[in-house]
Amino acid sequence: MIWKPSEKTPLTAMVCMKILDRALTRFGDAPEGLVQLVIGGPDVGEALVNSKDVPIVSATGSTRMGGIVGPKVSARWGRPILELGGNNAMIVAPSADLDMAVRAIVFSAVGTAGQRCTSLRRLIAHNSIKDDLVARLVKAYGSLPIGDPRKGTTLIGPLIDHASRDRMQAALEQAKSEAAPSTRQDGCDGRAAGRRLCAARRGRNAETDRHRAHRNLRADPLRHGL
After folding, report:
1. Which of 65, 106, 126, 176 could form a disulfide with 61 if both were Cys (CB 3.0 to 4.6 A apart)?
2. Which stretches within the chain are classed as H helix?
3. In whole numbers, what is the pLDDT of the chain averaged over residues?
4. Which of 105, 118, 94 is nearest to 199 (CA)?
């Protein structure tokens, strides 16, 4: 196996390789060169993608990256495995333990300053608990220590580079623009309808018309975007 980490995080990969080497030495029966580490930029990744000596390429990154890697590997009859464009959501039901939910939400969204592919990006909450949950989250976020990640008391460190900072600022501005109160009674903001989860309110009489029922299913949001 050949492992190429992001060129922005080589030290983490090197430490992991040392741990793996110790484990392989301990067991003693692993073939030499079982796992190899290569450090470099896009040119190194492209060489692995194009090499017929690499039958399987597993890549994690953006959908743009996957759109390039997948066809190139397939064109040489390789097998691509792609994990792309994480947009992870958490659903909070009326029966949820809100104290536990807040801890899970904050840990998932804030850990590593939100720079994991598994970081939480969307929150879907039932209308009956939405206000209480948001109030708890505002309080929790307000208490988070931000600063030097080398200090033991810091929970949120810096983003990895200026480009990441710029993308974060753009995302915050978009979230602010989409958080304006909707004038529609159903609560679905037209600008963000494609990213909202809407569901029918309980107790509504069943519609016999299939198309109208489908429209009503989308008309009643249970999601509160943060």
Report:
1. 65
2. 10-27, 42-50, 63-75, 98-110, 127-142, 162-178, 210-219
3. 81
4. 94
For the stretch 140-152, pLDDT in tens is: 999 999 999 889 8
Catalytic residue, candidates 16, 32, 117, 207: 117
Whether 188 is catalytic: no
DSSP 42-58: HHHHHHHHH-TT--EEE
- For 90, phi then psi, to 5°, come to -125, 135
Residue of 181, 182, 163 whose CA lies nearest to 171: 163
CB 220 within 8 A of CB 198: yes
Question: 7, 16, 83, 178: which one is catalytic?
Answer: 83
User: In sequence order, which residues have a C-beta less than 8 Å from that of residue 84 and are 6 or more positions away?
Assistant: 60, 61, 62, 63, 65, 66
